[in-house]
Design goal:
The complex is a heterodimer of chains A (468) and B (464).
Chain A lengths: L7 H9 L5 E16 L2 E22 L2 E9 L4 H17 L16 E2 L7 H5 L1 H16 L5 E19 L4 E17 L9 E9 L7 H17 L6 E2 L2 E3 L1 H15 L2 H5 L17 E4 L20 E6 L2 E2 L6 H6 L8 E2 L17 E2 L3 E4 L7 H8 L2 E7 L10 E13 L2 E6 L3 E5 L13 E4 L4 E3 L2 E3 L2 E3 L3 E3 L3
Parallel strand pairs in A: 4-6, 9-16, 15-22
Antiparallel strand pairs in A: 1-2, 1-5, 2-3, 5-6, 6-7, 8-24, 9-23, 10-11, 10-15, 11-12, 13-14, 16-17, 17-18, 17-19, 19-24, 20-23, 21-22
Helix pairs in contact in A: 4-5
Chain B lengths: L7 H12 L5 E15 L4 E5 L3 E9 L4 E7 L3 H14 L17 E5 L11 H16 L6 E17 L4 E19 L2 E4 L2 E6 L10 H14 L8 E7 L1 H12 L5 H5 L20 E4 L20 E6 L2 E2 L6 H7 L7 E3 L6 E3 L3 E4 L6 H8 L2 E13 L4 E13 L2 E6 L2 E6 H6 L3 E2 L6 E9 L2 E10 L2 E9 L1
Parallel strand pairs in B: 5-7, 10-17, 16-23
Antiparallel strand pairs in B: 1-2, 1-3, 1-6, 3-4, 6-7, 7-8, 7-9, 10-24, 11-12, 11-16, 12-13, 14-15, 17-18, 18-19, 18-20, 20-24, 21-24, 22-23
Helix pairs in contact in B: 1-2, 3-4
Classes of the chains: A alpha+beta (468), B alpha+beta (464).
Amino acid sequence: MTRAGSDLAFRVADQLKIDGPWDVYAEHLARYEIHFDGTHIETVRGPITIDGYGIRVLRKAEDQMGVGYQASADASSSGISTALADAEATARHARFPARAVVLPGSAPRALSDVEISDASLADRPREGVDAYVRELFARFEGRTGVQPSFGSVRATVGETTIANSSGLATSFRHTSVDFELAVKASGGPEGRPPGEYWVTRFQRRLDPRELIADADNWCQRAKDVRVAEAPPAGQIPVVLPAYVLSEIVPPVVGFRLSGAAQLRQMAPEPGTMYGTELVSIDNDGRMPWGGESAPVDDEGTRTGRFALLDHGKTGGLIYDALHAGAFDRTSTAGAQRLGDFGRRAGSRFTSRPAPGPATLALHVGTGGTDAEVIEAVREGIWVEQFGWAFPDPTSGAFGGEIRIGYRIRNGRLAEPIRGGTVGGLVLAAPGTPSLLNSVVTLGSTATLSDSLRAPTIAVNGLTVAGTT
Amino acid sequence: MSELLDSEDRLRGALRRIERHTPFAEIVAERSLGDSVRLDRTSVSPRVFPRLEGAAFRAWTGDHWAEVASTGLLAEPIDRAAEALIGLLPEGAGARPPPGEPTGGEASYTTAPPRPMEDLSIEDRINFARDWYAWATTVPGVPNTTVSMGFFSDERLYLNTSAARRHQRVSRVFASVVPIAIEGGRVQYDALVRGAIGGREVLDYITEERVHDVARSARAMLSAESPPTGPITVLMDPSTTGTFAHESFGHGTEADQFVRERSYLRPILGSMVGPEFLTIADDGAYPGGWGGIYFDDEGRRSQKNLLVDHGRFTGVLHDRVSAALLGGSPTGNARRADFLSREFVRMTNTYVEPGDWGLEELVKEAKDGVLLERCTSGIEDPLGGQMQIKVLRGHRIEHGELTTLVSSMALSGRVLDVLRSVRGVGRADAFEIDPGFCGKGHSDMLTAGTGGSYMLTSAAVGPA
């Protein structure tokens, strides 16, 4: 196998010598990780080097399209030939209801017009991860009764290259960081069992300065877990911050408002009210540092921003080139390669493209600061973290156990709560209760969490199932 | 793409170079193959799985593990990885070995099913999928069904500086039929899923009768009532019982959590945690079990480990280091999701052993409550001792009888409370090991089997 690198898709494309349409998507990734138990380094990893590509061929089959795809890490001449043969073989048996597929044409060779690459991290990844972990440990020095129990920082520096039969040959660089930390609170005279606050984050940048404020919050959450009581039960106003919404909204909205759902008769008609008038959501592939932002989508179409929900009404749907071809539409730069288990499972080149959300932007409202949203709610609960919210793109349902939250009493955050579940539908047709058609307040400022930028929202009508 | 064993000499050469800089090093090389067919109302998608191969190299620095990995098994990526690993090892790393004993010796195992999947042509597989699709969509109100089936073969070679050599090839077959019912903008579905180590015989489970049943269930879900909320008597179906075993006494018994002082279970090892008829095991050698392995990624043979033995919490799952630090023995549970992922203590096939109750008897015993069916997922809280499980559907139990169909629910509760409340476990005729994937945290997904029969207990439920 030859040494793969940032021109991998171009080199593979040069060898294809076949009729179009076809495309090649390739990645060169280097991952650097530190895993720790307490403040002891347990494993240092890296570089974890991944070089791979996927060849897609699109072949007419009567009035449909035969789509063949093969991913490989073997970039030798024979490896490329084998991958191409596999792709052509699967295309002969595959059928997709598109009469034609239009792949994107030329684009600049190197794209850098969307901020998704942390230059400092890209230049010195090992040193960057080392410094981050040192700073993290420093944030816990001198604290009594609160310490990290384990965690990891996994930074990836990558370059994606895409080429196709329409003459596209483009590339862009990106960085990402998966961060996990369990903060444990224990000891003290009260004899209560220890409490833990589990932090998981996906972000594009690695900035140790963020830890200064974060560590105090995490420690307080871990302490609060120890004294939390069961939540009240019933239909209670619920306040959800952006970092909780980011777990729930993108998987469901991103599928149900896509060409893939339309093909399966699951997408709403345009102009249907699927949220309150307060709710507007954009699909924004160019949002700086967004988890699913990039200069082009995973087929090489230049990204942009458009409305999925406009004041509650459904707007456009998300299309990749293939699904656009099924509905005589044009791609909305909605091609994503997320694999069977999502991005964190591995590399995007292993999966063929399908419609998926870019970074989503839930518009801010007029509800003010978090404190003002809470004040407006008066009585209810604030969910700080679910164990897991189990979003189900097909049914639209979600629901999870409250890992840590707070009662809202007299318009202020009160005692911590834990246990019980909060659940319902994320979005639903008019007349059916759902998260988005029960939003009563949106805060005035938005924060980015993974692939959602959103304000804190208050919702009436979700069911809270307590444990008592 | 070369054969995995073609790279063995190169890997051994790299290991010899690394050995000069460390008291212990090991290599896990992997090559995966497989293919699948996915079919629904509008499309047919045959797929050959990514042709991936590569190796992870791990060595002891004297204080912690250092590790590198790379795709590719030719000389260049192997040499590059070996040099990178040596660069991570400090001078004098040879002074102190890692905790625990290394494996040695040689062994090799390969799945040899009587009817290998490879014998089925792609046309045959598509025809299978078309039949299943047709069976499901003959049910009125089910306009679409997603059918998937396929196999993957995971081949691994383990070598270490203590002369161990392990070679294994595990072949897994999976199939799923997911009928989708749609009405007035509402979407509901149900799922018939099977997966196991083996060959075509795994597909025999997908019968016309079972597909009709699951399609009718998807249609009925459109008119399902809301589930009950709050604390209630719950009867778990086999899929839910299996996930309960996994989330309750699975993750909490992974001994790396003990080393981190992150398991609420550590102080109660040896205590009674449930009724005497309750036994929970993790068994990497369970015949055909989806999460099975012949060896773990430290070269140890997989085995059956009793976690709860007749109500008493008796065992935990170890890798080399956790066993050494906690005075135990390695249990064959050191696993990597793939050659790009690190080793952790992980489960294999985790299950509640069957009891002696029939389903009707358990429903009568429940009197009033809810039957949880078709578990989709779960998550644990190893320190706090909480867990939650999501199911696709259920039935109310009223006056000792199954009554109304109810929609998807999440169960939550304290593991020890749920265990102490167990009142009965179903018979072996309902026992099954379900295929699933498990993460350590939110990442490192790998195959994990979950199993059980019906189980009656109490917990809190709510819509999800």
